[in-house]
Amino acid sequence: MPAKGGRATLDGVGRPFFTKWFASVDDRGDDCDRALILDGRVLRSLNALGWSTREAAGLRDWPSRNAAYVSTMHALAGSSESRPSGWSGSCST
Q1: Cα angle: 42, vertex 58, 11; to 5 degrees
Q2: Are 66 and 19 in contact (CB under 8 A)?
Q3: pLDDT tier for residue 91 given thresholds of 50, 70 and 90
């Protein structure tokens, strides 16, 4: 377990792992902003769209950036502006 910036680390277990883990074990209700995955692919996609976690959070630290990402994505998902035209809001199959 090499030290990184004074913190213990495990090779191969980083921020992407933990966001996936949090997303898989988050069992809070639908009234909460549930955890979302924030890995390299998601970051690249957001950056390609011109959206930055760093700018959204106004801070450099990853916990703040992840919180800004989760709250922003949930807010967008809940807004009528983010839904395709004709969206009924139901999930019937």
Answers
A1: 45
A2: yes
A3: very low
